[in-house]
Amino acid sequence: MTTVDADGLRRRTAALLAAHDPATTGRLDFLRARFDAGLAWVHFPEGLGGLDAPRSLQPVVEGELAAAGAPDNDPRRIGIGLGMAAPTILRYGTEEQKLRFLRPLWTGEEVWCQLFSEPGAGSDLAALATRAVRDGDTWTVDGQKVWTSGAHLARWAILIARTDPELPKHQGITYFVCDMSDPGVEVRPLRQITGEAEFNEVFLTGVRIPDAHRLGGVGEGWRVASTTLMNERVAIGGARVPREGGMIGVAAETWRTRPELRTHDLHQRLLSLWVEAEVARLTGERLRQQLAIGQPGPEGSGLKLSFARLNQEISGLEVELIAADGLAYDDWTMRRPEGVDFTGREAGYRYLRTKGNSIEGGTSEVLLNIVAERVLGLPPEPRTDKDVAWKDLPR
To answer: Residue 132 contacts by C-beta under 8 Å, 6 or more apart in sequence?
Structure first.
């Protein structure tokens, strides 16, 4: 293991910039060179984009590269790959899987999506019915997934499917990597309240997945998926933002520049939300420090809960603040965007889009249960189906 400190990272970054001047090096070539230099995610192992360095040193690299005008990997576009697929592959993947998937994932050459939720298994994800049947060295997968962000852009998907219906629902699941370009994969848009369709439904009909694309052991899919879900909630609710960043910054700027819109009631609500947003930001910083020394825990669920509620309340306040202008909306044309832009669009878009924050990445109701049981240690809810074979559950 290499011992790397902040000064060492600065020297390595300077060497990268000297060998690959961002002004004359193509974006993709620069990103590939950065990965190979171990400066992609410094806490990953050597040879996989990292240097086995503390996660807390990543901002050193980011600061040096930003000052030099180096390109980034457009993290919002590839957020599912970075925040969910990569840590799962790192923990459960074979060496061959890590070498095959991590580099093009980080550079953005290959976009990832997440095939978890189903029409009959959203909040109760373990009740999923998509079936994978083994045939030698391959699995045949049939089923339907829903609420799949970015499936229309993705080359790869992380997928969980039922491989043994004779076992209780949490035990008969296996985790796969699915090639979205394979025959039998059909992606259909789901138009949302914003008019756009960043979500999709995905139909899987006789899709053949090699056993070499299985992550973890057969029947261990729920354990592997739990790692993905914990990382997902940290990625959604715990993104690093500056003080007064994100949506609270947009609302505060409107307050400062439009004094004619102010009322005492709106002022009190804005102050309260500003304080809550700052508490959430500092909590996110603490969680990232915890991540630097271990795996994400259920605390990420609390952050994601806060993220959803704050976004919805801040966007509602903003619409009220700008009165009639808050009812305006730029374009209802059906589009299939590459991502979500919470701060670069108008208030009407933010108000509508944040309604999904309490559903995506785990519903707020499910996350409240997780916080109650795993963080606060409260008694769990009675679950009569816990030890019943999946095939015998009422549907």
So the answer is: 139, 140, 141, 161, 162, 163, 174, 176, 209
Express the helix, strand and coil content of the chain in percent, nearest 5 each: 45, 15, 40
Specify the pTM: 0.88
Dmax over CA atoms of the chain, in Å, equals 71
DSSP secondary structure, 307-362, as one string: HHHHHHHHHHHHHHHTGGGGG--S-------SS--SSSS-HHHHHHHGGGGGTTTS
Query: Residue 97 — left, alpha, or beta (φ > 0 → left; ψ -120 to 50 → alpha)?
Result: alpha
Residues marked active site are found at: 232
Grade residue 292 by pLDDT with cuts at 50, 70 and 90.
low
Length of the chain: 395
Q: Are 155 and 110 in contact (CB under 8 A)?
A: yes
Q: Which amino acid is at 313?
A: E
pLDDT average, residue stretch 228-253: 78
Q: Compute the mean pLDDT over every residue in the chain, rounded to the nearest whole number.
A: 90
Q: Which residues contact 187 (CB under 8 A, 6 or more apart)?
A: 148, 151, 152, 180, 200, 201, 202
Which pLDDT band holds residue 88 (cuts at 50, 70, 90)?
Answer: very high
Q: How far is CA 232 from the centre of its chain?
A: 4
291, pLDDT greater than 70 = no
Task: Give the tokens for residue 255.
Answer: 């307050």
Residue 389: partners with Cβ closer than 8 Å, 6 or more residues away: 165, 166, 167, 168
Q: Stretch 296-316: mean pLDDT, rounded?
A: 83
Q: How far apart are CA 155 and CA 322, in angstroms?
A: 41
Cα separation of 248 and 203, whole Å? 38
DSSP 3-state of 284: helix
CA distances to 64, 125, 173, 335 from 215, in Å: 35, 18, 11, 34
